[in-house]
Design brief:
Blueprint: H1 3-22, H2 26-59
């Protein structure tokens, strides 16, 4: 890679880093990301619990024909 491209990229990274550091909303963004991550983890846990209950219920169904009901 030519040297001027590397120099340009480093300059651009420094410039963007300064903009991020100067931003007043950096803390709010971090709080938002953490909140969303917690909500996503909670949703995954709820889905896992529901899936486990559905699987347990499906496994408890008797398929050998000796259960109740009428024969057709």
């Amino acid at each position: 890679m030519p040297l001027f491209i590397i120099d340009f990229l480093l300059t651009e990274i420094r410039h963007r880093w300064r903009m991020v550091r100067a931003s007043k909303d950096a803390g709010y963004t971090t709080e938002t990301v953490i909140g969303i991550a917690l909500l996503a983890a909670l949703a995954i846990a709820v889905i896992a619990i529901i899936a486990a209950k559905i699987t347990a219920k499906a496994n408890s169904i008797n398929l050998d024909g000796t259960g109740g009901g009428t024969k057709t």
